[in-house]
Every structure is written in structure tokens, then in C-alpha cells.
Amino acid sequence: MIQPVKEKIILGIDPGTNIMGYGVLKVTGVKPQVVALGVIDLRKCTDPYLKLKHIYERVQGVISSYLPDELAIEAPFFGKNVQSMLKLGRAQGVAIVAALCRDIPVTEYAPLKIKMAITGNGQASKEQVADMLKRMLHIPESEMGPFMDATDALGAAYCHYLQMGRPAMPKAYSSWKDYIQKNPDKVKK
């Protein structure tokens, strides 16, 4: 059960070194609605360090425009190309710092968790995620845009919205003996 909040703005980011997606979700009560959906196009910037500066400035600009309360960001997935992973990790780190410099709490979600939260299938395609978000949040086709990075970012924000009302789970038990020791009132003698 999602706990109602008066109003909360969640910024979702799908980190990228060529195209970085962002999605802004406004939650009023228990009702989410899309405020913005877009991308930061980094393809023209060839210097990797200037690219990071550009990411920082653009994420700061998005934050200034929408004043999010929280940031939900997709964690990089483990790929075979180590150089790509390092570049993606840097881009993600810069986006996180941009939020932290504005005292915005950050939550990171694995791609599998985001896909599972939205489609029920951790192996869903980008198209399936985009289609499900479009239907659930009533996004007009004209606002979908050509890049799935924006809907991936919105997916991170929506996943965060779904997590808002979930109570923290107690630590798992290592064995039945551990369970019994921690819950003596639940054992019949």
C-alpha cells in the first residue's frame, strides 16, 4: 500500500554518456503524474571531461527547473566492456553529485528492479517499459520522444514512487535457529 504524501517531486535519471534521460514525476496524495520527460544530448561533446561538466550543469538546470524532493537513478549494469562501464559510472556519479550539492536524497535502482516494478518482468525491453509507463501514466504519444532514455529515467522515478509506501523489511534470518532466537514468542513449547 502506497502511503499518501501531500506532494513530492521525484526526478528520475537514466545515466548515459551520449544520451542521458530524465523524467520528473509529481506525486499528489497517491496519484503520480508526469511533469517532464526529456534527454540531455551529449553526442556533440567529444572531450570526456567537458562532457562530465556538461552533465553536471544540465542536471543542475533540471533540478532548478523542477525542484525535486528526491532523485531516483538507474544503477549501471555490468557489461563486458570495462571502459564503457567506467564512463557510465562517471556520468552517474556526476548526476548524483549534482543532486547531493542541492541536498536532494538519492536512491539507486538496478535496471532489473525498475523493469520488474513496472512490467512485472525483469527482462522486459525498453519498449515494453515505455509502453507500460505510457499506459499507466496516460502519456500522450506526442510526448514520448524518440529516445527510450527518457522513459527509462521516468521508470526509475516511478519505481521509486512504488517503493515509497513499502515498510522497511526486517533483516533476514540466517537459519531456523536464528529465527527462534529472535522470535521466542512465536514458538510453542
Identify the CATH architecture. 2-Layer Sandwich
From the 3D structure, determine the CATH topology: Nucleotidyltransferase, domain 5
Report the CATH C-level class: Alpha Beta
Give the uncertain stretches in residue-range form: none
Count the E strands: 5
Shape assignment: globular
Largest sheet: 5 strands, mixed
Seen as an oligomer or otherwise, the chain set is single chain
Number of domains: 1
CATH H-level homologous superfamily name: Ribonuclease H-like superfamily/Ribonuclease H
The helix tally amounts to: 6
Rounded to an integer in angstroms, the radius of gyration calculated over CA atoms is 19 Å
Element pattern in H and E: EEEHEHEHHHH
In spatial order, strands of the major sheet run 3-2-1-4-5
Distance between the termini: 35 Å
Q: Give the mean pLDDT.
A: 89
Q: Roughly how much helix do the residues carry, as a percent range?
A: 40-55%
Strand content: 15-25%
Q: SS-based structural class?
A: alpha/beta
